[in-house]
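Pipeline run #58 for the internal structure catalog. This entry was flagged by the ingest filter as a single-chain record with no existing model, so it goes straight to prediction. Upstream metadata was stripped on purpose; only the residue string is passed forward. Reviewer on rotation: M.T. Logging verbosity set to normal.
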Amino acid sequence: MSEKSLVDAIGIDRSAEEALSRAGVRTLDELRAADAESLAAASGVPVDRVREWQQRAARAGPAGKGRNPVATGWTVAIVGLLIAVLIGWAMMAVGANRVKSAEQVRQQAESRLLVALDFAVELAANEAKSVDDALLASNWGSAARRLAQVSNAVNLMGQVAPDSKQPQVDEARELLSQLQGAIGDQSSDARDRLDAFRTALDGLKTSEAEE
């Protein structure tokens, strides 16, 4: 499905998305077009909550509208970088007498990935600060929209992180999922979950990527 999931698009949690899916609503267009009372009855979600989600869906606009152009541009650039590095690595690795050179190229590639990871972490941290500001103002709709941009940055982190950093990225992704659920439910512990997520981001920063 080319359209973003409802979790990413309007900031609901996975259980809410599954309830809507069981009722036949899987996209923003379907959510916007649904009769709120009928959808509430079919999904078991209170009608007021359904109407709130429909308002978020209306603000979200067409699929892909909220995509972060900076993150998208960096994804393209990073993929190009990886292709170039892998081609160079393969050429250097031809023949047993070039194993040492191949290892040097591998180390250079990992160093560049760490630079890209630091960029993605910084992007996520900046958006997380905006989420915090929205929560302080009790603006749950704005927090949910900002959280979608945080999710984009975390996805970028997963694409560029070297193997040594993937467990920490997975931890950050799990904390983000918990934060999405708390904001979707307008839970009082949303800021605590946001603090835990931001701490995980701090742990992903690396001085090795300063070159």
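catalog note: Residues 99-136 form the longest helix (38 residues).
catalog note: Residues 63-72 have pLDDT under 50 and may be disordered.
status: ready for reviewer M.T.
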